[in-house]
Amino acid sequence: MRFSLSTVLPLAMAISASAQGTTSVYTEPKTGIAFETYMDPTGYAFGIALPTTPSTDFVGLLVGKGKGWAGVSLGGSMINKLLIAAWPSGTSLISTFRETPRIGNPPEANGSYTMTPIAAGTYTNATHWSYAFLCKGCILADGTTFASNASTDVLGWAFATAAPTMPAAHGSALPKHSTQGNYGMSFSAARTAKYATYAALAGAPATTPRAFNA
Q: In this structure, how many other beta carbons lie within 10 angstroms of the beta carbon of residue 25?
């Protein structure tokens, strides 16, 4: 099923609980990028676009609302997996990589992976915020993420209505998520011949602090 551009976000809010756990194509209206996307009634969404032969990179979309943070586990669970989180700080968006060996506030992760914002898809408005990005070196072979050759796998998600302790700081402590879960992502459906065009929309790699004008 392909959602129309004008209805996809309101539709996400109206999806019943019984429909959770599925992904569908969502074309982000400001960039034209077609993401294979999971959307939750909370307003949370995560989408991904991959090259036809995936390697280490992907184009991602993380959506939330209000002042809270949204996150995705690229390996399904919270523990010992590569996590990505983002949240608004004024009219900017902050992003961070996290990893933790135990339940609790995950510290920032250190690695060769980078996130680069796609300006047109990175914004805040009265109903939600959106962070579109190129993630380079983010598909790892050490089991902390999904495998590059996976057709499907389980990803994890988390959403908090409360803002991070220090919203302007990418290393801020994150309040406990108010909702979370898992869903099956179709990576085969996320593969697209337009990937190079999508990736080229990204700007320069993010540097500290990871604040992107929305």
A: 18
